[in-house]
Amino acid sequence: MRSLDTALVEDKIYEMARHAGVNITASCRQALQAAYDAETSPACSFALGKLIENSETAQKMEMPVCQDCGMAIVILEIGQDVHLEGRPLSEAVNSAVRRAYEDGYFRKSVCDPLTRVNTGDNTPAAIHTEIVPGDEIRITYLPKGFGSENMSRMYMLKPAQGTEGILQAIVQTVKEAGSRPCPPVFVGVGIGGSFDTCAYLAKKAITRDIGTHNPRPDVAAIEAEALERINALQIGCQGFHGDISAIGVNCEIAPTHIAGLPVAVNIQCHCVRCEKAVL
Fold first, then answer.
1. Alpha-carbon separation of residue 141 from 67, 79, 126, 278 (angstroms)
2. Sheet holding 261-268: strands in order across?
3. In the chain, N or C: fewer CB atoms in 10 Å?
4. CA-closest candidate to residue 240, choices 187, 178, 185
5. Residue 135's pLDDT is what?
6. How far apart are CA 34 and CA 270, in angstroms?
7. Closest Cα partner for 274 from 204, 175, 179, 192?
8. What is the pLDDT of residue 102?
9. Residues 6+ apart with CB under 8 A from 187
10. What per-residue confidence (pLDDT) applies to 99?
11. How far apart are CA 223 and CA 189, in angstroms?
12. Helix, strand, or coil (residue 109)
């Protein structure tokens, strides 16, 4: 059994949040550059160039890379041989988010869903915990903007709709979103599980690097086919009608009930900000 003070978790998440606010991921940088190199539309090439320039300027000047500094999504994979000490874990996580958004001058966007009164510090974070083998804590931090989050969809398909139904759900979601989620988009897909766990799978999918593939060949085939079909929509960067409408599609899968085929599609804009660490 390994003891770990939650103050260490707080400090690490604070560090991750500060870095994520001003930096897109390495795989996102590579994907945007690849999109720029492949794009044939002058308008989309211009827009992609500006997106790349913006990310470089934000990193250099340590300023937010997007005006939507996101809602903090925190995934904690906690080893079953870890004993947590100190303040409650949720308090430590929210304290880290509160400090990071204040010190980083990040926009605070969390509010009551009915009164619309802002909480003032971008908390509470959306915290997901999993108990896993080992004596470490794996932390994933994702500031999720809502221009893209609002375009996400949940489908409860009939089992007979199968792979084609899954592909149609993914592509239709992106098509209906159009330019609103600031394309080129990065698409996370959850397949299976229950209504709630399917959405979580979709969220986890966008924490994987762009360009990685699900280890199951049939699921990887869905990723590749969905990406091809999305780019055939010709939405293009920022909706200017070009070759690259998406920079990646990642799928996660879990067993489901014999009567169902849940599919969740979580849209992420071109500004992919995600940090990972192990304590």
1. 18, 17, 10, 12
2. 153-157, 261-268, 185-193, 246-256
3. N
4. 178
5. 97
6. 13
7. 204
8. 98
9. 170, 173, 174, 206, 226, 227, 230, 246, 248, 249, 250, 265, 266, 267, 268
10. 98
11. 9
12. coil
Q: Where are the beta strands (DSSP E) in 11-136?
A: 71-79, 82-85, 126-132
The b-or-e profile of 112-127 (16+ CB within 10 A means b, else e) is: eeeeeeeeebbbebee
**The predicted structure's pLDDT at residue 116:** 98
Q: Give CA–CA dist 185/263, Å, rounded.
A: 18
Question: ω into residue 262 within 30 of 0, thus cis?
Answer: no
pLDDT at 157: 98
What residue has token string 């510090």?
A: 121
Three-state DSSP state, 164 = helix
List, run by run, the mean pLDDT of 10-residue segments along the chain (279 residues): 96 98 98 97 97 96 96 98 97 98 97 98 98 98 97 98 98 98 98 98 98 97 98 97 98 98 98 98
Query: For residue 196, which amino acid is it?
Result: D
pLDDT at 161 (0 to 100) = 98
**Which ranges of 39-161 would DSSP assign to H, the alpha helix?**
42-61, 89-103, 146-149
Joined tokens for residue 268: 């992420």
Which pLDDT score, from 0 to 100, does residue 14 have?
98
C-alpha 102: how far from chain center: 22
- By three-state DSSP, how is residue 232 classified? coil
- Of 186, 265, 276, nearest to 231 by C-alpha is 186
- C-alpha 228/C-alpha 165 separation (Å) is 16
